[in-house]
Amino acid sequence: MVKRLLSFALLFALAACGESGDVPTPSASARVQSIAFSGGPAPGVDLNQTAKFAFGAEKTGSPHPSFAFGSYAKGCVSGAEQLAETGPTWQAMRLSRNRNWGHPELVDFLKTLSAKAARQPGWEGIYIGDMSQPRGGPMLTGHASHQMGLDADIWMLPPKRLDLSVAERESISSISMRRANGAYTNSNWTPQHMEVIKAAAKDPRTARIFVFPGAKVAICNAEKGDRSWLRKVRPWWGHHYHFHVRLSCPAGMSGCVNQDPPPAGDGCDDAQQWVNNIINPPPPDPNAPKPKPRRLIQVADLPQQCAAILSPR
Fold first, then answer.
1. What is the value of pTM for the model shown?
2. Residues 21, 272: contact at Cβ < 8 Å?
3. Rounded to whole angstroms, how far apart are CA atoms 259 and 19?
4. φ, ψ (nearest 5 deg) of residue 126
5. HEC secondary structure over 200-262
6. What is the distance between the alpha carbons of residues 100 and 5, in angstroms, rounded to a whole number?
7. Is 182 helix (H, G, I), strand (E, B) or coil?
8. Which of these, 7, 121, 128, 212, could form a disulfide with 182 (CB 3.0-4.6 Å)?
């Protein structure tokens, strides 16, 4: 019986991740833990429950192998790893939110990036904002994405100290880099900000980095060498107190859906158009349809594995 259960669990793991050649062999305990995936929703889980309440209630990661399921704005993560609150070159902020969780690939990325940031003058490392909830999924407040454990916000505030207390991490704020509603950077912006973003973009695991339009244009104007990494840096509203890093799906995870690749080229002309539209906004389209209210995501809307990794109710 035990052998049959282990075989079934292993088959699930392979199906969730793609072809068997892409998947590392799980340990015996991991295969046993994977059995929870096989029976549909965890006991007592209501598929019609609003997903943000179900996933927002989870306090710890699920006892399963680490997989990202679904998409960045409609997914979840099993076996998430909690980033240590403080490390040699980072601190996790706003600990009361319990959003310092992610796929192990993200945790490793942040540790690597923080060490590179610590080499910049005036930076002791990085302050890390929201990653994901312990089991991913829609958040109670804030982000529409950050659901698969592959997104993280890096504060624009250069860390001078890495011994902030829990209370200080709740009260301290990052600093804005924007001027003229995001058309330009302000005096807080430094070459070191660009270097930290550049280090993040050059990591092959990075799919995209979101910054406000003026920062993208400033980076485009400053880069005099290799420009290939600029393609990953994309303008988006907000993102002037932090920049947002999004990793690609880890190799072999067919249940994880990547965002379409950025358009070809360095994206600088597109960013400049964003800036032009901020300075001289185009007239509103009188025929534009009114936005429809967004329906709240239910547990049933997520990949079926997401209902399986919720705690029994």
1. 0.86
2. no
3. 21
4. -140, 150
5. HHHCCCEEEEEECHHHHHHHHHHCCCCCHHHHHEEECCCCCCEEEEEECCCCCCCCECCCCCC
6. 33
7. helix
8. 212
